[in-house]
């Protein structure tokens, strides 16, 4: 057996104390997320250089030692493709992860392309082909087999030696600083929660709605988020996006009319139909002053798709000038975050939203002078970025 199993609070505390002086800690998680809103953590893999440790979260009730280890800024935390791992760790209260270095972003910076998998990275560097046959494991089942535990251990065994090789091959002197800045950004974005009343902004086609339809769409999305959190259900299991769109467009006035919508579940209508009808009725009765306003009607909004392309062109130009991958500087979600913040909310609503990632220090240093800034938010952007 080439790993240590940690199945008690005392064992976890002892491991964290022994690892505290290590310069680098490799981390991975295994979890199950079938029907739940939050992932169910099934295993935490750690490697500080003295061997792999596999932490059984079903046996741990005190996470403070690992929280302290993760918050140690003097120790680099290595994760490959960290987004889901951050969410899984947050499910047990580990949210402050300092000095995060994502090896997937690092090889992207090296020109490997986006979304390179861990197994491919290991094979490219070492020639070893990892067995991925256990990727569909139920990580909440006990006992886990030797094969499953070996599979999990592999996910951190190679990260430490690969980190040394990756650092030596980073293309620029400031590459590691850039990656650590993005690591900090990823952690902070995970900590920031979009208020329920703005969850509609996350829907792919929400930009197509305005006026009373937009008011109703907002209410459906806010209700779905609240209900999903109460019941710990995946959003799509509460109600799918497509059905929210149809309810919003059709505004049925009876249960019978609601049941005529393609894909509508009679069970969900029995459960929620009366409430949905009440929400639709309230949207119909909104006064003109209560109808949501956007900047769509101003001359500053050339059209959603047009503006998306203009922003992407600006990002591409900024990335080319900085000689970094455009995919590292922006992903579509961040582009839409900025677009929504500028054009899809009012001044008072904007004050309730987090500052877009594009306006935060490490990205703004590259995007300044390239990113379109509409006149109605220019003063706010100037104030937010003057110390960047």
Model description:
The chain has 19 helices and six strands. It is of the alpha/beta class and 388 residues long. The protein folds into three domains: 3-191, Ribonuclease H-like superfamily/Ribonuclease H (Nucleotidyltransferase, domain 5); 196-290, HRDC domain (DNA polymerase, domain 1, Orthogonal Bundle); 295-385, HRDC domain (DNA polymerase, domain 1, Orthogonal Bundle). Strands 1-4-3-2-5-6 form a six-stranded mixed beta sheet, sandwiched between helices. Helix 1 (9-19) runs parallel beside helix 2. The longest helix is centred in the middle third of the chain and has 21 residues, at 211-231.
Outline of this structure?
The chain has 388 residues and is an alpha/beta fold.
Name its key features:
alpha/beta; 3 domains; DNA polymerase, domain 1; Nucleotidyltransferase, domain 5; globular
Outline the secondary-structure elements.
Layout: E1 3-6, H1 9-19, E2 24-32, E3 40-47, E4 52-55, H2 64-70, E5 76-79, H3 83-90, E6 100-102, H4 103-109, H5 118-126, H6 146-157, H7 159-169, H8 175-191, H9 211-231, H10 235-238, H11 241-250, H12 255-259, H13 266-284, H14 304-322, H15 326-329, H16 332-343, H17 347-350, H18 361-367, H19 375-385
Parallel strand pairs: 1-4, 2-5, 5-6
Antiparallel strand pairs: 2-3, 3-4
Helix pairs in contact: 1-2, 9-11, 9-13
What radius of gyration results from the CA coordinates?
24 Å
- How much β-strand is present in the residues? 5-15%
Number of helices: 19
Low-confidence segments: none
> How are the strands of the largest sheet arranged?
1-4-3-2-5-6
- Helical residue percent? 40-55%
Number of strands: 6
SSE class: alpha/beta
Mean pLDDT: 94
Domain module tally: 3
Distance between the termini: 50 Å
What overall geometry do the principal axes of the alpha carbons give?
Answer: globular
